[in-house]
Amino acid sequence: MSGSLRRAAAALLRWGRGAGGGGFWVPGVRAAGSGAGGGGSAEQLDALVKKDKVVVFLKGTPEQPQCGFSNAVVQILRLHGARDYAAYNVLDDPELRQGIKDYSNWPTIPQVYLNGEFVGGCDILLQMHQNGDLVEELKKLGIHSALLDEKKDQDSK
Amino acid sequence: RLVSGLVYLAGRVCLSQGSAGSGAMGPVEAAIRTKLEQALSPEVLELRNESGGHAVPPGSETHFRVAVVSSRFEGLSPLQRHRLVHTALAEELAGPVHALAIQARTPAQWRENPELDTSPPCLGGSKKTRGTP
């Protein structure tokens, strides 16, 4: 069990270093245009953030983030093994970029939504990761954080 | 020649560390300081212009990191704290400020870890609209 987890984690690291697609752990990336319906009306965005349990708005994509703060969000989610998240690239769609800021009344990107609710940006997600809150919030969504297994592995050695 | 060499080095250090209290504070940085002081009466306010590390022209005031320590944050969630900071800086955020990394702590929390974090490295931003927020 722990052996396969280690192999999966190693695969994650390779993917994170830009090894390209075909990795086992690929998040459900939606292009901003097709998923968002081209634009950022409040109703559309409301539907978008509620469509998936974990939704992030980034500059760039998880495979190729174009902003250090957006990348931080991607890396944190990767550490927790959260793979089925929706990621929207605001750089592809200026209406989405402004629309999501108006929707959340939050002036910057990245933005993280859990269970349809705005949680914060990169600083807040990092804080939640560091203090254990993120593991708890993911658990509430039925997502078992990979870090829990790591800890179990270490405890049993 | 030695003096001019030292001044050159000091200038380089200041560029890489942002304003770093060198006295070369731009108007946006000054406004951020004033507004946060007025809104939150902080015990500690550490502000760093990080624009030098991003894909914007030299001398820009677009990317900042701030640590605000205030008892006004007691009992507030991180989201509520950040929103207070955003409200105080609404004008700057609607204007020139493109990125704002926030550490919003109570005095007790700051004492546990009194340091301004560092931001992750820039990954280029939007190449199509380089230089504009």
UniProtKB/TrEMBL annotation, chain A:
InterPro entries to which the protein is assigned, alphabetical: Glutaredoxin, GRX_PICOT-like, Monothiol_GRX-rel, Thioredoxin-like_sf
Residues annotated as domain Glutaredoxin: 54-119
Domain of life: Eukaryota
This protein's GO CC annotations: mitochondrial matrix
SUPFAM superfamilies attached to this UniProt entry: Thioredoxin-like
Protein name, entry field: Glutaredoxin-related protein 5, mitochondrial
Biological source species: Callithrix jacchus (White-tufted-ear marmoset)
Any Pfam family: Glutaredoxin
The keyword Translocase belongs to this UniProt entry's keyword annotation: no
Record keywords: 2Fe-2S, Iron, Iron-sulfur, Metal-binding, Redox-active center
Annotated function: Monothiol glutaredoxin involved in mitochondrial iron-sulfur (Fe/S) cluster transfer. Receives 2Fe/2S clusters from scaffold protein ISCU and mediates their transfer to apoproteins, to the 4Fe/FS cluster biosynthesis machinery, or export from mitochondrion. Required for normal regulation of hemoglobin synthesis by the iron-sulfur protein ACO1.
Subunit structure: Homodimer. Interacts with ISCU. Interacts with BOLA1.
Gene label: GLRX5
One Gene Ontology term of the molecular function aspect: metal ion binding
TrEMBL record, chain B:
SUPFAM superfamilies hit by this protein: BolA-like
Gene Ontology, cellular component aspect: iron-sulfur cluster assembly complex; mitochondrion
InterPro entries xrefs: BolA, BolA-like_sf, BolA/IbaG_stress_morph_reg
Domain of life: Eukaryota
Region span, Disordered: 105-133
Subunit text: Interacts with GLRX5.
Function text: Acts as a mitochondrial iron-sulfur (Fe-S) cluster assembly factor that facilitates (Fe-S) cluster insertion into a subset of mitochondrial proteins. Probably acts together with the monothiol glutaredoxin GLRX5. May protect cells against oxidative stress.
Protein family (similarity comment): Belongs to the BolA/IbaG family.
UniProt-recorded name of the protein: BolA-like protein 1
Native species: Callithrix jacchus (White-tufted-ear marmoset)
